[in-house]
TrEMBL record:
Residues of the Peptidoglycan binding-like domain: 25-85
Lineage top rank: taxon: Bacteria
A Pfam family it matches: PG_binding_1
Protein name (record): CHAP domain-containing protein
Xref: SUPFAM superfamilies: PGBD-like
Domain Peptidase C51: 143-238
Length: 271
């Protein structure tokens, strides 16, 4: 893979504990993963502040996580326990998806990520933060860092790498929908919404959709995983149940491409 920032999110330098010789960034990772666990398990009691201070609240959150996992409850985060915390990201990035071709691989990689519940966090009053965002955005995070394209490119990168291909031969590494839309126009691999509406057979699983604000302005993207009648099924990041372009999760969505201005970027040159 070209995008390997996730590796920084699944490692700590040494054991972290209350009254220990701790590393602030490592403690912040631990607190973030404890809070992400709580988002999927709201009764676990593992949500805690993300400030890099391994105090009594963090220690209790660790104990509660250990209890939920049936592990010894000592409040200490060693490599073994941290590995349990970051299991969702390891499954998303390191489980080798299968597929008969690149399109199937893109779809299956996207589904695998969605199944592991990537969510952003709010840290120091900044949205678009946390381990998943940094993994998709090459270490960048913060309110201004919309991460839908970072997610989509990560999926294509991961799928392409399984075939020994480089996704940068298809598109530049970018977090901008405008950059990728313009690249699609230049390479003649962007299907405009008017054409897609009249000829839906041009839309294929594995392609990117790009929501159009105006002719040369796009504001949200994701992976097409299916086409059925007037609708596409997608997996997209930085969205929510309403289909926001600045939501907080990776979700499987349904969008009506005949009622929205949705262009499509084809991955066919890489297939």
């Amino acid at each position: 893979m070209q995008k390997k920032s996730y590796l920084k999110e699944i490692s700590i330098s040494n054991t972290q504990k209350r009254f220990g010789t701790n590393v602030k960034k490592d403690v912040e990772k631990i607190q973030a993963w404890l809070t992400l666990y709580a988002m999927q398990n709201p009764n676990a009691g593992t949500a805690t502040g993300i400030d890099g201070d391994f105090g009594p609240a963090t220690e209790q959150a660790v104990i509660n996580f250990q209890k939920a996992k049936g592990l010894p409850q000592n409040g200490v985060v060693d490599y073994y326990l941290f590995d349990a915390l970051i299991t969702p990201m390891k499954r998303a990035f390191e489980n080798n998806s299968i597929g008969n071709n690149l399109r199937e691989l893109v779809v299956n990689v996207a589904k695998n990520h969605a199944e592991n519940n990537p969510y952003e966090l709010v840290i120091r009053n900044q949205s678009n933060t946390g381990p998943w965002v940094r993994a998709y955005m090459d270490g960048n995070e913060g309110t201004s860092w919309y991460w839908c394209m970072g997610f989509a490119q990560t999926i294509i990168d991961q799928a392409a790498s399984l075939q020994g291909k480089n996704f940068k031969n298809l598109m530049p590494l970018s977090y901008s929908c405008d950059t990728i839309g313009t690249t699609g126009l230049q390479k003649r691999i962007l299907t405009r919404y008017q054409t897609a509406r009249s000829n839906p057979s041009l839309i294929k699983p594995g392609d990117l959709f790009l929501l159009q604000k105006s002719t040369y302005d796009w504001y949200h993207t994701g992976i097409v995983i299916g086409v059925n009648g007037d609708v596409i099924e997608t997996i997209e990041g930085n969205t929510n149940s309403d289909g926001s372009s600045n939501g907080n999760a990776v979700l499987n969505k349904i969008r009506n491409f005949k009622q929205s201005k949705i262009d499509f970027f084809s991955i066919e040159p890489l297939v």
